[in-house]
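Regression check, UFG case 337:
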Amino acid sequence: MAILVTGGAGYIGSHMVHALADAGESVVVLDNLSTGFREAIPGGIQLFVGDTGDQNLVSAIMKACDVDAVIHFAASIVVPDSVRDPLGYYRNNTANARSLIEAAVQNGVKHFIFSSTAAVYGNPADVPVTEESPTVPMSPYGTSKLMTEIMLHDVARAHDLGHVILRYFNVAGADPQQRTGQSTPMATHLIKVAVQTALGLRPQMEVFGTDYPTPDGTCVRDYIHVTDLVRAHAAALAHLRRGGPNLTLNCGYGRGYSVLQVIEAVKRAAGHDFAVRYSSRRPGDPATIVAAAQRARQILNWRPAYDDLDVIVGHALAWEEHLAAAERHANAGARSA
Ligand code: UFG
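Current build output:
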């Protein structure tokens, strides 16, 4: 029996693959390497390069590797891109998920863990948001994920495919052992941008909006360490293997930090100041989004280990330093060749 991790060469997926390999699980990865990296996968793990929408390939993998669980990370994840290219997002995130779920049903896969997002809540009227809060996405990205959630609910009624839907809040940080991290060069996420600025890889960074109805006027988010998020997936898989019911769970810590608080944390971690420009609001940003985070703790017995903004930022900075050193090394090699 094996676990198929889609998007296993990507940021969160590669942390999952490392954790599963550490736990001695049998794992195979499907990734089209559009944003993932072969090097992010630990040695000895089989990588199939292809799309989740390639049903023949997916079925062949499921048969050949005796897959009984799927952890589905592969997706497009940039909210503003989804506004510009809705059909691309509905293809990659919704149509490809439909195809993957169908292959799972046809091949007798028992367990499906799905990476959903806090973006399904849109701009919530009340925070913290519970799993019962209304789902009114503000972007095609959020809608594309919500549509997959709905498919999983309907499929669970008709077929023997159990699921856990995990709604991620703001994922950040890197493997504490520095084996993998957020490697996308053009990433747009706040902590990545801030650590790149701290290292001088960007001349300055922008704060998008200072007039929100929040304590310091900047947006508030619930930042969760990627390692804790991955542990929630492992706990979700154990839950399904025990015969537990289908679940939808928020993955956050239940505490919010503003953009300015995050930037201050990055300055503390770096030990120096860097240039920050105050800009206008970025379209589509909700003012505050924080998880009601009890359910995962109660049902999965999930116990976060890195619920500390300074630790999250410290690991993100260490990973960025690692990437910068690798880049310098590669450039030096190219010059001396
Ligand atoms: N921000 C800046 N400057 C930057 C980058 C971001 O001020 O250079 C601000 C944003 O405007 C926002 C906050 O930092 O207020 C966080 O922005 P991110 O881009 O890091 O993350 P988002 O909250 O927009 O989105 C993330 C994920 C989504 C997920 C969402 C759920 O990318 O997939 O969290 O809250 F749906």
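Comparison notes: The longest helix spans residues 309-336. The chain is about 40% helix and 20% strand. No diff flagged against the previous build.
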